[in-house]
Sequence to fold (534 residues):
Amino acid sequence: MEPKFIFVTGGVVSSLGKGIISSSIGKLLQARGYRITIQKFDPYINIDPGTLNPYEHGECYVTDDGMETDLDLGHYERFTGIRTTRNNSVTTGRIYKTVIDRERKGDYLGKTIQVVPHITDEIKRRMLREMDRDKYDFIITEVGGTIGDIESAPFMEAIRQLRWELGKNAVSVHLTYVPYLKAAGELKTKPTQHSVKEMQGMGIQPDVLILRTELHLSDSVRMKVASFCNVDLECVVQSEDLPSIYEVPVNMQKQGLDAAIMRKFGIPVGETPAMKPWHEFLDKQKNATKIVRIGLVGKYDLQDAYKSIRESLNLAGIYNDVKVKIEFVNSENITKANVEEKLKDFAGIMICPGFGQRGIEGKIIAAEYTRTHDIPTFGICLGMQMMVIEFARNVLGFADANSREMDEHTPHNVIDIMEDQKNITNMGGTMRLGAYACQLKEGSKVASIYKDKLIHERHRHRYEFNNKYKDDYESKGMKCTGINPDADLVEIVEIPELKWYVGTQFHPEYASTVLEPHPLFVDFIKQTLPSPSL
Ligand code: GLN
Fold:
């Protein structure tokens, strides 16, 4: 079969959940035995979201091959279990950079470089890139932003051209919003009609419409949309608010979204796959009612800032038959005087990753409190580094211990800048990024959790545990139980004496998926049971 292209765009408002819809389409096609990939095209100028503040764009996700990407790639991986790469995430900035670099080299032979065709050609080249390798049956391309944005116009033009060139092998899926007007007691389809008109004005007729709605849409509403927008009735699908995003694929399947897309491609539809493992997961999720409270000690009070950590905790809860209630604790407000009050009722504490000074002293105080009260604690990246600093200050007796990131002149630099990071001046894309090997110490807690000796996990940091102090730590009870074999970097610390006190320099949260939750998260939550329930 020739590869088929599905283009997913959004209209009316942002934050409709295009990423969830793209992931759901991927999941459903995968369940039919097809090989799929999902790529994200973002209209902003940054080369990648690596330098963006989480307030701007939520969490920065990292692929195995070390690309810093949009958090939607996390949804793609969690839903479908695929491993994305740097090819799955493209921004306007990357497109322009490629074209401008080529222009400087003289590749355009004296031509005037323009948005059309040079920028649009580069967008098309990247949209099609996965096709050359004959790896996939379906390539799903999600375009960020909302129809009508100035920034996304070149992407729309690229899609228009590709639909023309690919003919039957391209399908356009458009996601819109149907608001409910309380005063009128009506669901309004006009914004959808306008959004489709806008697309038609750009030369793209959507094949499939997915209507986001808070209330169920009657057949007559769907019929109205179908006839006003030139879309088959079976291709007008609704996406109601559901208790969990993981119910979306099933809801889409019930309405025949995958079948409708396949018919558009002229592919025989066949039987609807049962998706047994997925349904088993959803059943587990429904039955998990007992609540476990986990405190998330970080500095961003924003759902999306620690997206993968939150999802990994939720998934780990479900596999332990409990519902994890995540409560954010702002580390900037944690003091020695109030730490007990703030943390005592949690079954477990997660100390979050991060950059810079703000909120670190609170993380250190939290690490001390949970260590001395034996509350299960999981520190990730900066969280692990804060556990290490706390141990140096309060157990090793180095009251001034710090990370060089926070205090360049600290005499006890238990966390130090990595050798190959010393002379870096460009901040974008230059950290230690992506998957690296980690050897687990025999007999350690982590070795028994992973049931493995050599693992690979994704990284995103510049600073590392300072090996000069390794013996001090080990002799006082904090063990270095995960080591990168190539560079001898400490990747995991744990205190075996305590119930569960583990810090990882890497980010295990990026690798947790719905059907394969990450073992560290599953074990962490397991350790928090039974807990004070609400
Ligand atoms: N700021 C720390 C470092 O660069 C930790 C990074 C993180 O938490 N991702 O090493």
User: Anything to note?
Assistant: DSSP finds 18 helices and 22 strands in the chain. The chain has two domains: 4-279, 288-418+428-528. The mean pLDDT is 95.
